[in-house]
Every structure is written in structure tokens, then in C-alpha cells.
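ESCALATION

Customer reports they have been waiting on this structure for their group meeting. Please prioritize. Original submission:
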Amino acid sequence: RRRVRARSSPLRCRAPGPALRAALPLLGPGSGLTPPGDDLAGAALFGRCLVGQRDRAWSALAARLSREAASRSHAISAALFADLARGRSFGPLHALATALQRGARGAALDAARRLVVLGHSSGWDMLTGFMLGMGIALSEDAK
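Update from on-call: job pushed to the front of the queue and completed.
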């Protein structure tokens, strides 16, 4: 958890420049068809889309990172990343976002449970990235 917080803190910021610098090293490394960093960074962008971060700078960031993912990752991961960056993803992630927007805690937990079973770790990585993109704290001491 400490490493995720340290490496991902720029993904929680409001400026796309630090988010770009934080996301670039995450893209590509790792095992599986969708490496953990791709899932995490893509879902952070997905979360940003939902909190209104769709201005030109964030759209340019999403496009740039999608191009980077295409050159650094497996084609399947790059396609998933591009979808996440445009605010499209698996049903459970959309259901989670909808439940959170409505304040439906039970539905949010159900959607999160359905999300985390995707892939070996993709669901957990996307959940973490989504939380970062939405600005939800990862620490126990969050208020």
C-alpha cells in the first residue's frame, strides 16, 4: 500500500503534467495481458472522466498515454487502456461509479466485488486506479 500511495500520488492531483510523469513508468512492465500499471493508470483516467476532468489538457493526457500504452504493452492491454482513458470499461466498473454517484453503498460494494474478480489482479488494479482517479484516499487515516 505504501508503494502504491508513493507512486500514485500525482495521479490524484488536478494537474495533468504530474499525472503524466507518474503514469509513464507504470505502463508496460509486468506480467499478463494487462500489466498492473496499465490497469491502474487507465482506471485512474476513467475515474477522472467521471469527476469532470474531461478538459483539453486531460483529454490530451489520455491520448498521449494511450499512444504510449500501445507502444509499451500488449495489444489487448493497450486497447483496454484506451477504453478506460475514454471513460469506457467493464460493466462492474461502470456499476461501481453509478452506485457511488447515487450514494448506494450496498450496490457499490456489490459492484466492487464483481470488479475485483476480473483477471489475476486486473480487477484489484482497476479498483485502486479508479479510487485514485476519483480522489478517494487510500490511507487508513483518511477522514
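Sent to customer with the following note: Residues 137-143 have pLDDT under 50 and may be disordered.
Escalation resolved.
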